[in-house]
Amino acid sequence: MEFNLRNEQMIAYHRNREDYEPQPEDCLQFAYGDRRYVKMTNQIFASDDVLKLKNLEEINEDFHRGDFITLALLSSDILDVLMSHLSNPHERIRELSSSAIVLISSIKFGRDKIMEKFYVPTIMKLLNDQVVNIRKNGYLSLLNMTEFQQGVDHVYAQGILVPLVNKLVEESVEDLLTLDLQLLEKILYCGDAQVEILKTQAIKRLTQLLKRSNFKLRSLACKNLACISYDANGKLDVINQGCVLELCERLLDDHNEVITNATMALASLAQHNECKFQMMDNNKLDIVIQLLSHNDHQIKLNSVQLVTSLAEHPKGRKECYKCLPTLQNFSTDPQYEYISPYAIQAIEVIKWEP
């Protein structure tokens, strides 16, 4: 009978037997038990570089499992020792220590410990290291720390905003500049960060990134400008520093991700009349209307919202009549259910008569 059963039936058959004996509890332990990480911590702290490197390599292998990280943090001072080695003159020791910090910050218990001991400023110093991989580990650790709002608030409170803005011009490695922009975007959702960033050169530097050949940089620059524009004063500063037409150029970008973020930024900026005037005076409405037929649904949605704002301009209202059939289709077609409320609103604005 057993040979005719599928695997899951075989398991059920054996479990239902009267003489079934459950598997014994997992009692596998490290050598030295809970003292394993105490021993490794002591060796990393006090031994020669060769033994330090050996232990750091083992730590990095172990810390790919969250339960090992928790065990190490509960049973030893491994976090304190790793943090002390972030300034070690030996490049490989700094790199392995920083990569272990990345792994620790990937679990909640590790993030809580880092915040509890106020180690974020120590991690921030890694962004200025001469070694690319160490700077990368610094960014990855901070990105892990900002995975949830509590971490975002804590990192922002340590004064991360200005260093991130400075790195927009100081960082020469594009992959790391991408991480810098991702981290800056997260920080902009914190407290008064959207107000404080107006005291820096962020808008000018982000606008310069819109012309970079790397589409990820262009996309993230659009996204950060959108975040800044969510604040009323930020919206005005972005417009006054000449970002509107630069963002309009991104509407013709080859990558959907860039177009999505550019339309999102312009939809926010177009709530201000000056943005409407600049777009209408430079004949950008036709480009927006063409995007209503784009195959990406998020671009469609952003474009509908942008059309709604531009239709409030007298000239824009007249020109938007040509896209009424498309908007009416969005408002009635079930496949555009999520666009329908915005399409109905756009139709109402276009048809409005004083």
TrEMBL record:
This is Condensin complex subunit 1 C-terminal domain-containing protein. It comes from Paramecium tetraurelia. The lineage of its organism: Eukaryota, Sar, Alveolata, Ciliophora, Intramacronucleata.
